[in-house]
Give the backbone structure.
Amino acid sequence: MQEKSDEQLMIAVMTGDQVALAALVTRHHAPLLGYLYRLVGGDRQLSEDLVQETLLHVLRQHTYQAARPFKPWLYAIATNLARDYFKSAAVRQRWQSGDSEEALLYLYDSESSPEEHVLAAEQGSEVRAALAQLREEYRVVLLLRFYQGFSLQEIAETLHIPLGTVKSRLSVGVHRLRNVLVPVQKGVD
């Protein structure tokens, strides 16, 4: 038996099929949580809340068009909810002050040693801090491409921007991220 596509499952969800909803949640919950966790700077509670809100939007959606790819549509909802959350000045100040330092690791390899877990956490913390220094337009493109594995076309569809803009933001974002992670060393002997 062939597994149903996300688009087929979403059509079933719109007719009230709870099994289809459970399948979509099972399929997308962890990757979406990881994406939002990185997007909001490592705040586990906030990322979990945003995942729940995203899934509620999916459940309430009655205008989904099956011709539209599901995954970019889902991530567009999640990205917009995160943006809406950070529009508040009080929230922006709290986030920038570093109150959200709780670590969350999504490790797909359960065979990793404790040393590998610590190293991954350390590197993840450095990358997360570097990503947080980038403007949102670059951070979102980098997260979707390198953490979520989106194609350039899927990123364009998710963010409702031209493909050329995706390529430009990806290039600039990688360059700026590299500059933050590997600062130019002057006068090193």
About this structure: The domain at 6-181 is CATH 1.10.10.10 (Arc Repressor Mutant, subunit A). The chain has nine helices and no strands. Residues 18-39 form the longest helix (22 residues).
